[in-house]
Amino acid sequence: MRSVFDDQLELLNKELISIGSLCEAAISMSSKALLEGDMNLARQVTEMAEQINQKEREIENLCMKLLLQQQPVARDLRTISSALKMITDMNRIGVQAADIAEIITMANISASKDTMYIGDMAHATIKMVTESIDAFVKKDVVLANAVIEYDDVVDDYFNKVKKALVDLFGKTDTDSEYALDLLMIAKYFERIGDHAVNIAGWVVYSITGKHNKETQR
Q1: Which domain holds residue 73?
Q2: Percent of the chain having pLDDT more than 70?
Q3: Could you write out the DSSP letters of every residue in the chain?
Q4: pLDDT-based confidence at 11, cuts 50/70/90?
Q5: What is the CATH number of the domain that holds 145?
Q6: pLDDT tens-digit readout, 185-194
């Protein structure tokens, strides 16, 4: 019976890796669409967000099956309950990547020096999402805590974006809607970083049984 349960837990790990990969791809595609002015690529992000949403439902069903059929206790219970929390954040990552892509297509935003720090933010958030999933699969508390601390890097980039946009607003020929669209894109990337922090926080809880409420964004 335990071997069956272990197989199902392994399947859960694989499914989390799968949805994590989709999240990474969605962020990467929205970032690339922004930096390269690729409207076709931006439109594909919405489809990927739908795949993430479908994958969330599949993982949720697997978790409920494990809870109802296997009645896990202690660490196994924490693992499954944490996975349920994590996929909610992953779905939000997909939604926000799609929101970024929608702004790019609706506003027809193309790459410029104004998007430089936003590109850096995107790379940083991809790193956070990737490593938060790795921490769960590897049961690595140190890596999970590193993800939480790395959120300061994303916040620093966001502050740089805000400063650059304030300077942009100061120019008489600035399109205010364009500047606001860039600010919204940066805010979505900042929120994606927060979701990665949430995921990492649940990794720590699944392993240690302790959860720092301050990590929840």
Answers
A1: 2-215
A2: 88
A3: -HHHHHHHHHHHHHHHHHHHHHHHHHHHHHHHHHHHT-HHHHHHHHHHHHHHHHHHHHHHHHHHHHHHHH---HHHHHHHHHHHHHHHHHHHHHHHHHHHHHHHHHHT----GGGHHHHHHHHHHHHHHHHHHHHHHHT-HHHHHHHHHHHHHHHHHHHHHHHHHHHHHTSTT--HHHHHHHHHHHHHHHHHHHHHHHHHHHHHHHHHS---GGG--
A4: very high
A5: 1.20.58.220
A6: 999 999 999 9
pLDDT band for position 70 (cuts 50, 70, 90): confident
Q: What is the pTM of this model?
A: 0.90
Of the candidates 28, 153, 172, 167, which has an alpha carbon nearest to the alpha carbon of residue 100? 28
Number of domains into which the chain is organized? 1
Burial bucket for residue 170 (CB in 10 Å: 0-12, 13-18, 19+)? exposed
